[in-house]
Every structure is written in structure tokens, then in C-alpha cells.
What does this fold into?
Amino acid sequence: MLVIEKKNKLRNKLIQAKTIGKTIGFVPTMGALHSGHLSLIERAKKECDVVVCSIYVNPTQFNNAADFENYPQTLKADVNLLDLAKCDFVFTPTFDELYESKSDLLDIDLGNLERNMEGEYRPGHFLGMVTVVKKFFDIVEPDKGFFGEKDFQQLAIINYMVSFFQLPIEIIGCATVRENDGLALSSRNALLNKEQREAAPLIYKALCSLKELLLTHTVQECKDMVTEQINKNKELGVEYIEIVNSKTLQPITEYNTQKVCRACIAVYAGNIRLIDNIAL
It folds into this structure.
């Protein structure tokens, strides 16, 4: 496995692989790797000849400076995990390697895809995210990109960006990996204290209760009941819960079992922000 900081060096290595017909799989991360990330590497290895993983905490997608400063960074441990997972290349660029300036953002209108849920509560987040992913795509030129469904809105926006720029990349959405108690794996979980960690599985449990609640209650009543259920725990506070059309990400007001919907939620445990979602 090679750890590479310079984009031109990585490009040259990948050109050599493509010249002999190798397919490239790409997994972008912000580090602090866990089993969820490693499952993406495993999937990429099954479907591609060469796997590239990036580790880069991208400042342009943080609307909260404190959140950026507190984001866990464990590069040495991450590299060891990727080596054990038999990743081929780890790309660890600096800001200057990727950006000309902090205003060097992608010219794209994400429309309604970014106007609710994460987009509403984290203004500018998705433009920063999609900018850095596009930069990585331009460097790596992968055949396939692998992304977790835990960040469902992000996945939808990446699919839109690929279509918008007509990039020859297949985006593979991979199922959320969970702890045994249901908590979605996240790098932020490492920041939870004992009481917060014990409370956090309630998020998934409450989401799962929606499947039955929606059969006998209105969408708004269901959202209110889930919010109340979670907020009863003093360690947790719901920021938003939304039930959306899985394709358009637009909120629904009436539930229909014939339509593909997704329940998405953001919850604070102290000052740690956790997100999750399930298919309905």
C-alpha cells in the first residue's frame, strides 16, 4: 500500500494501472476510520482491481468552526487499518494541494436537494462537500465511487453532481453499518461520553418505530411522537426529523406504502451531532 500526498504522483500511478486495463474504485473519507469505512473498502475491492481511499478533513464543508476543530484525526491508526484491509493507495492531500483558496467552490446549483434537512441546518455544507468530491473525482478518475447510505442526502447530491457533469463514474450506495445495539457507526461516536453512548441507540429504535406508526397516524403525528420519544432522554435532543421521497428528498405530508420513502434524523448528544436514516 502506498500513502501519497501529491495529486500528480497519484495520477501517474493510476494512469499506469489503467493502461493495463485495471479498474479503479474510490472511497473518500475524512479519517477516524471505523468498520463502516472498512466495509466500503471491502466492497470496492470486490468490484474493482485497484482501490484508492482519501483521508482529508475538508474545511469547506464545515459551517461550524468548532466542529471542524474537534473532528477526530487519527491518521496513523487509519493508515494501519487501510493497510490491513489491503487498500492499494491512500491519498492524504493538504489544503493547498486541492484548493486555490477557500472560495474555490464548485459552480453548481443543487436546487431542492440541499434545501431541507442537512442543507437547512448546515448552510454551505453540501457545496463544500460536493466541491471536494468533484476535485477527488478529477484526480482519481475512478470507475466506481463507494459511499455509505448513512449520509443519504449526501449520496443523493453526489449522484446529482455526477449526472450534472456527465462523469463516467458509477456511484455505489452501501448499507449503513451499525453497532449491535443499532447505533449507526460514525467517527463522531468516539466523542460521546458514557451516558451519551448508552442513550444514542434510542435514535435508531425510534426511527424503526415509524414503520408501524405510519400505518395508523399522520406523518406529522409520527414525527412528533418520535421527537417526543427521543427528547424524553435527557442526553438527547432532536434537531430535525423528516420523512422524504427517496429520489427527490422532498418532505412528504401523506404516507403511501407504494412510494419509496426515507426517514432522516439529526440528534444532538450534548454538542455531538449524530445523523441516521432508514428506508420506510
User: Anything to note?
Assistant: Residues 203 and 230 are 7 Å apart (CA to CA). The chain has a mean pLDDT of 95.
